[in-house]
Amino acid sequence: MDAREIGKSLRALRAESGIGLRELCRLADLSPAALSAIETGRSSPTLATLHRVLKAMGRDFAGFFGTAASDDSPVFASSEMARINDGRRDCIFAFPRRSGIRFAMAKESFPPREKRSEWEMHDCDLGALVISGGPLSLEIEGQKSVTLHEGDAFYIKAGLKHRARNLGDSTARLITTYEPPRY
């Protein structure tokens, strides 16, 4: 989905939700100018910003990107997985949104030599394993920053503000799980 499509879909969701622009900005901690630029396709939101906007409307990535599935197959083809890219971070969600699936799993990629990253906070627990690249700097608000290398893992409880950035020269790849699947 390109920036224009994302903006158009967000504007339609906002209208469907009956939330005004300023109210959504307040709920998502975003300026009206920034949200307006996103909705008109002049700006592409980061994954963290898109998550905050969707959460403020009671939505999630799976619902937004239409990854609902109704069959009972235990196999999920790569070609059918929801893919999100904000120009910096890339995320592929392994499972569709379906009753009976009790956690979400994603493959995330962080570009090399990141200067800064956005704070994130989720209403679900998340854990991740660094499968390649890095090292990755992980900050959890109020705690000391930690450096993670290939093979290292982390677990963050719901509600903790955190951010990660790739300090290395190659793309860092992580397998991330979310429980319950609300990301």
Any descriptors?
single chain, 183 residues, alpha+beta, 434 Repressor (Amino-terminal Domain), Jelly Rolls, 6-stranded antiparallel β-sheet, 5 helices, 26% strand
Topology:
Layout: H1 3-17, H2 21-28, H3 32-39, H4 47-56, H5 61-64, E1 82-85, E2 90-93, E3 104-110, E4 125-132, E5 136-140, E6 146-148, E7 153-156, E8 162-166, E9 172-179
Cα-atom radius of gyration: 16 Å
User: Total domains, how many?
Assistant: 2
Structural class by SSE content:
alpha+beta
Oligomer: single chain
CATH topology of the largest domain: Jelly Rolls
The main sheet orders its strands as 1-2-3-9-4-7
**Topology order in helix (H) and strand (E) letters:** HHHHHEEEEEEEEE
Low-confidence stretches: none
**CATH-derived architecture of the largest domain:** Sandwich
Q: Compute the number of helices.
A: 5
CATH hierarchy class name of the largest domain: Mainly Beta
Report the biggest beta sheet as strand number plus sense, adding barrel if it closes: 6 strands, antiparallel
Query: Would you report the number of β strands?
Result: 9
Explain this structure to me?
The protein is α+β, with helices and mostly antiparallel strands and 183 residues long. It has 2 domains: 3-59, 434 Repressor (Amino-terminal Domain); 69-179, Jelly Rolls (Sandwich). Helices cover 25% and strands 26% of the residues. The strands form 2 sheets. It has a 6-stranded antiparallel beta sheet with strand order 1-2-3-9-4-7, with no helix packed on it. Helix 2 (21-28) crosses helix 4 (47-56). The two termini are 18 Å apart.
